[in-house]
């Protein structure tokens, strides 16, 4: 049994826009959410810029009860609940107000590190022998599945409610996991997404590794430069993205709007063998992941119009483009259009895949390909493979039919999903 799966709702809490309207406008105009962070300067970070959503305190009451807000100190949960609840509303669904769970509705919401600030707060109180002052919410805010637990309770879902974690691949992997559950007939609706905390305790390790750009503290919006010859490391980010996946039958029965169809995809690992390592991709596995995604989606490589890559603004961007070209058997002017949103939102870590999936789907709705910010000087290794015309610097009008979105994460793990414009 294999059922068609469509996307009926989107939600986002991104560094350059909280909510679909602001996020769409930002992507269209090339607006950056990367900002100078005074706290990183105070802590003597080399890279003192980052990208985090600007969430107004006065909107939290729309998403959390007064009891939930008491002692809430986990930014990832805030971002995830906003994105998840917004996607649910956008799909025309309502929270469960009955005494019976929504047995056919589930949640799969991933994260990497959750509740770091709450962990720190707990450690300090325990060290000060004030363990009784931790409060009743410390466990919920620091367990990885805290985000899916919050959403599951808010929405009253009775199908699978769980959390996945695969580093930077988390969000894209989650889309495929939700797709498979619906396609196999185990659920009708799955809210999928991912979130990532903000702050120095999340970003500090990357700064210590010296893989973040240190020369842009005075001009942060120019720091993240995917596919650029002057790229000098990724900018850390945070936030959340969410998508409501639904069986086509359920969506049609509800009369729901449909953004796009999920055709399928692939997840795999390079095993940290060959050129693969904890931080570097095994190209054989990357290419295999892309090829199998195309095969599983039931399309041909030449049908792909657009690629939304992982493309983090590091030295590996050229290798990623080479892997796409080899996997698809396309190069030069025949290569699909390709873009990366990380020039505007930085690398949102575990939230990257879901935020970027939302942006990818919005290109169907807007009839556009969003531009590549800070890519004035395309890396020469990339232009040897593909035509520069396939790397739009600004948003262009275009009605894509098929878009491939991929994420490649720490641990040599890969995910590629294929989206298609919906047509009965």
UniProtKB/TrEMBL annotation:
Keywords from the UniProt entry: Acyltransferase, Cytoplasm, Transferase
TM regions (residue ranges): none
Pfam families hit by this protein: ketoacyl-synt, Ketoacyl-synt_C
Gene3D superfamilies: 3.40.47.10
InterPro entries found in the cross-reference section: Beta-ketoacyl_synthase, Ketoacyl_synth_C, Ketoacyl_synth_N, PKS_Beta-ketoAc_synthase_dom, Thiolase-like
Domain Ketosynthase family 3 (KS3): 2-421
Key word DNA damage present: no
Swiss-Prot/TrEMBL catalytic activity: a fatty acyl-[ACP] + malonyl-[ACP] + H(+) = a 3-oxoacyl-[ACP] + holo-[ACP] + CO2; (3Z)-decenoyl-[ACP] + malonyl-[ACP] + H(+) = 3-oxo-(5Z)-dodecenoyl-[ACP] + holo-[ACP] + CO2
Coiled coil segments of this chain: none
Compartment(s): Cytoplasm
Catalytic class of the enzyme: transferase
CDD domains: KAS_I_II
Similarity section: Belongs to the thiolase-like superfamily. Beta-ketoacyl-ACP synthases family.
The name this protein goes by in its record: 3-oxoacyl-[acyl-carrier-protein] synthase 1
